[in-house]
Amino acid sequence: ESQFTQVLSPYGAQMAGPQMAGPQSGAFPGGFPGGPAQMAGPPQKKLDPDSIPGTTQVIEDDQAKRGGQVYVTNIRGQVPPLVTTDFTVQDQGNASPRFMRCTTYSFPSTADLAKQCKVPLAAIIKPFANVPKNETPLYIVNHGEAGPIRGNRCKAYMCPYMQFMEGGRRYQCGFCSCSNEVPVQYFQHLDHMGRRMDLYERPELSLGSYEFIATLDYCKNNKPPNPPAYIFMIDVSYNNIKSGLVKLICEELKTLLDRLPKEEGAETSAIKVGFVTYNKILHFYNVKSALAQPQMMVVSDVAEMFVPLLDGFLVNFQESRAVINNLLDQIPEMFAETNESETVFAPVIQAGLEALKAAECSGKLFIFQSSIPTEEAPGKLKNRDDKKLVGTEKEKTLFQPQRGVYEQLTKDCVAQGCCVDLFLFPNQYVDIATMGDVPSHTGGSIYKYSNFQVEINGQQFLSDLRRDVEKSIGFDAIMRVRTGTGFRATDFFGAIYMNNTTDVEMAAVDCDKAVTVEFKHDDTLSEETGAVMQCALLYTTIGGQRRLRIHNLSLNCSSQLSELYKSCETDALINFFHNTILLKTPTLVGSTELSTDDRAFHRLLVNAMGVEETQVLLYPRLIPLHTMDVSSDAIPAPVRCSEERLSESGIFLLENGLSMFLWLGQACPPDLIQNLFNVITNVFQPTSLPVLDNAHSRKIHSIISSISQQRATSMKLLIVKQKDRSEMLFRQHLVEDKGLHGGASYMDFLCYVHREIRQLLT
């Protein structure tokens, strides 16, 4: 308790160790007992907000202490720098924190202690995380036909935690302690320390993360896989034609398909491409390179979906470029006069799935849909939005997907390695909880552009589409997490599908997707040997090679609560809680002002977020721009996310990874307004930020650009003026203040916790 008192004392106490990221505002339940309404008592001296622990200060301190340094992973149970700190990782036996982060780096040694400490034991794993250019990419190990070396009992893969003995002829598994014989072809003598002579020549013996080339035993039907395919499925109903969206997509694809992801060292991408357009019927296109013109084939019986052609549907873009460009020119013209507003959805997924099955490959469907599927067909949906349910016991039913067809589709897609990415352009309710169900269980992504207009949302959509097509990805993946004796993985969260209790199945896994794994004790852990875990991901590369990606991590174990709390990684904890508590975020705060679809969308978005993404989502960056040094390359230091930090004469940029706001104070200097918007008066309604030829404009655009590059989705910039109606949207992100829809302020919450702890201690 004294540890907590030290952390939460509102009277200028310091944080308990450099790695505690402080209690994050917006990360606590709003309606705790004794919330603001029940906090009556003797009048208290007004607290100075600067004297209480603050997220921004902790971030700054960690950056000052560990920023710009090399983080070497050779120490067990070492707490990494915060996700907000700029550091370089050198792998020396434990996986980089970019791939795996834990809620604590010192596990309690017993189940009783785990219960007592109330800290969930979990790892947030991002198996395909992007690695900066200055860090070494993963080594690929090829053991030939013999395949990767594995333990006999628990089947763990060879890693730095295996102990060699008997002159190198046997090894003891670091996970289950079983003694195994070393295969003849893998034998190597030991040095005087008992280490293999080839230790540093073998990635699997000296590194935390690496890849094995998988043998045919790891392939479906013992056959090498085909490279994946990308199928673009465009809703050509009235709304999408009228808004100009169909033309925008077709124009973009002509250049974007040149940038399909390719294997390291390959000249061109091995990914095949195919095209479908649809409204209430589906149109498939033959784009075989030998054709002078593309050919359309129509399937109007959507209840019995089939693919009307095999040869010429999935093609190599480079070979069929002329026919494909011809098709992309024709599509907007073909449907220019359409009046058809009805659409189907489930048959579209079914069609893509059948095409991949016929081609015997995995792949991704890019579906561009504008409305709820109301046409008589499998997967038809009805409007079930009901504001009267908000705040009642039945509210949760609004966010539960309608089962049946979509449940079976999910299962079939995962089995084939068919990932679904959904780009939604709704003008009204579309039941995102159901439409997003297949994408969210197949490793897919969901994007939403309400009331889409090319001139307003066009660039945001194109940025998202480009990144989505180009990003690194693996297909037809199965992940298993093995642990040392004494604890095991029990629960899994993310854009995943689970057929049993141990295998995490993902039709695809990309660089943005994280899987949260919770652990429970089944015995006492040894403080001497610590706790080890291994994440093994079997997948197909974009070039059609079957591989195993291995990430290993070793933690300390302790019987001391103080040690455990000191080793906590708060940002990872908050990421974990985000799956389980009511937070101050749009998903879970009940309010009729927020649409059901917006809340469902938010819920699906955070489902597979990594620690970096939830950190900034739950504690947005508020950056003062009026005092910035225009000659510096650095982004100005953020201030606390509270109304108190705003000033009438200031300009602030706020971003949380999903939204970006430029806030203009009422008394903002006219020369600054002129430099940014090219207007002389403050009485104007800005809708966009022009690119102007002056130092202030260049600097702000540079800041926005570098922030955007760090984020997984494109953020549309909203400009809000102080006291305008639109300011309410901005204010709901000031998470240190009282929530607009309920929830205490950060200061109130800390005082409440401090008082509760004082009471416990006395």
UniProtKB/TrEMBL annotation:
Domain Sec23/Sec24 trunk: 225-469
GO cellular component assignments: COPII vesicle coat; cytosol; endoplasmic reticulum exit site; endoplasmic reticulum membrane
Low complexity: bias regions: 35-44
GO biological process: COPII-coated vesicle cargo loading; intracellular protein transport
Keyword hit for Transmembrane: no
Record-linked CDD domains: Sec24-like
Record-linked InterPro entries: ADF-H/Gelsolin-like_dom_sf, Beta-sandwich_Sec23_24, Gelsolin-like_dom, Gelsolin-like_dom_sf, Sec23/24_trunk_dom, SEC23_SEC24_subfamily, Sec24-like_trunk_dom, vWFA_dom_sf
Annotated membrane topology: Peripheral membrane protein
Pfam families reported in the protein's UniProt record: Gelsolin (PF00626), Sec23_BS (PF08033), Sec23_trunk (PF04811), zf-Sec23_Sec24 (PF04810)
MF terms in GO: SNARE binding; zinc ion binding
Domain Sec23/Sec24 beta-sandwich: 474-558
Domain Gelsolin-like: 636-702
Keyword field: Cytoplasmic vesicle, Protein transport, Transport
Residues annotated as domain Zinc finger Sec23/Sec24-type: 148-186
Region annotation (Disordered) ranges: 1-54
Subcellular location per the Swiss-Prot or TrEMBL entry: Cytoplasm, Cytosol; Cytoplasmic vesicle, COPII-coated vesicle membrane; Endoplasmic reticulum membrane
Domain of life: Eukaryota
Family named by the database record: Belongs to the SEC23/SEC24 family. SEC24 subfamily.
The protein's name in its UniProt record: SEC24 homolog D, COPII coat complex component
Species for this entry: Cyprinus carpio (Common carp)
